[in-house]
Write a structure and sequence with these properties.
alpha+beta; four-stranded antiparallel beta sheet; about 60% helix
């Protein structure tokens, strides 16, 4: 452990201030990246959550200190049991409901908000660690979380492309054109895993899940060839 931080681990005004500021700063750094991507939960949301989560464990620490000092005589009379984890556990439970509210099912079988929900959960746990004075855990968790949310995103897209899997949303004149489109896809030496026809008004729309061949695995070439078909109104690659 980093022993020079030991004075800030004590439950003093300076220690409490440092923990709250650290939780707010780390949560804000994570939220800043989400704000730049236009996510529902952004900078201020993450900062407020960070401060609130840190407060949950600080209140618990305050209760523990009071029960062993000022409230010691009352505690001896009533014999109250103390659970140091109850407020922190309720904070984690509560963020589950908030995180669920950020998850939305949008068009074309796409689900948005999963990363935001998990980011909120991680921020709460990180802030509880800050409130408890576990500074090493906070710093490492913050660095890893920022790395995952900001650096790993383009790498994930690149990895998915290397797998040669592709999901397309294709709008066509009518559902009878599916056979024609499927024939073109197979001509491109791609395998069709699944076709899901989306119900709705004209024009017809369908989701194609494909496995591209290694020899002809260009996503742009597949999109161009499908877009050039007379029966196709639009084609879009879906990247989750």
């Amino acid at each position: 452990m980093l022993h020079f931080l030991d004075p800030l681990r004590e439950f003093t005004f300076a220690g409490v201030l440092c923990r709250l500021l650290l939780a707010m700063a780390c949560a804000g750094l994570i939220g800043y990246g989400r704000t730049r991507r236009g996510c529902a939960a952004g900078l201020r949301t993450y900062m407020i959550i960070g401060v609130g989560a840190a407060m949950s464990i600080l209140i618990t620490l305050y209760e523990w200190q009071m029960l062993h000092t000022v409230w010691a005589d009352i505690l001896a009379e009533v014999g109250e049991k103390f659970d140091a984890s109850r407020l922190a556990s309720q904070a984690i439970t509560g963020i589950g409901f908030l995180g669920a509210g950020t998850i939305l099912k949008v068009a074309h079988q796409q689900v948005n908000g999963l990363t935001t929900a998990t980011g909120l959960f991680t921020t709460v746990c990180l802030s509880i660690a800050a409130g408890a004075g576990f500074y090493e855990c906070v710093i490492l968790s913050m660095l890893l979380t920022v790395l995952i949310l900001n650096v790993m995103t383009p790498l994930e897209v690149l990895f998915k492309r290397k797998l040669h899997n592709i999901t397309l949303n294709i709008e066509m004149e009518n559902t009878e054109n599916i056979a024609e489109i499927s024939a073109l896809i197979k001509k491109q030496q791609a395998s069709i895993y699944e076709i899901d026809i989306e119900a709705g008004p004209a024009p017809a729309s369908a989701i194609f899940i494909l496995k591209m061949s290694k020899e002809r695995g260009s996503h742009s070439a597949m999109l161009s060839s499908i877009a050039e078909m007379d029966c196709v109104r639009s084609v879009q690659e879906l990247i989750s």
